[in-house]
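Sequence in, structure out. Go.
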Amino acid sequence: MTGLLDGKTAVITGAAQGIGLAIAKRFAAEGATVALGDLNAEAVADAAAEIGADVAFGLRCDVTVADDIAALLAAAVDRFGTLDVVVNNAGITRDSTMRKMTGAQFDQVIDVHLKGTWLGMKLAADIMGAHDGGSIVNMSSISGKVGNFGQTNYAAAKAGIVAMSKAAAKEVAAKGIRINAIQPGLIRTAMTEAMPTEAWDSKLAEIPMRRAGEPDEIAKVALFLASDLSSYMTGTVLEVTGGRYM
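Output:
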């Protein structure tokens, strides 16, 4: 039985845990070889070992540093011979009300999400454009559509990813490179489960499906965008929210 990503190589950032790791596992299960990048070198090495040393490796990667992303992409090509899919997933939160938010808190979130995604697209497109094209998937958030209290930095970055994805998609489409974005809603990860119960319950009440999503439910949408199932889609944004804010 063939997988949707047989013979393809994917690079996923922020892949040591949560949504990024779920994507890496799903891609590998569908036949891809995967390169996992994460700021936590030990955790990403463990994550890759869990998937299997024959099809995965992990490398420390700070997505705000161009040389780190370039090294991760080059390592994927050196190890597996190709680069077909890149998922720009790495992210952080530095939540605070606008009045109390520091400039450093704003800059950190913008750098990781917006600059990190931009660097990932830019460097991946250079490689993909010289070969047979590829698919780039950028991780936005429903916060980039509606904004969340205490997240002026995060909402701005995630909204920026949408606009940036569309602009970049227009630039590279002729080279056979597709760029799409995902906007997850409330997904059950270590980060969201650390929320106070009151905040979790409040968000849950806004979801028509009356449950949080699971990381693999985002991974399956990433798989769709990475594979030929979405071959005529670029510049699109898919909301995966259980109906929240529709």
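Check: The first helix runs from residue 18 to 29. The domain at 9-240 is CATH 3.40.50.720 (Rossmann fold).
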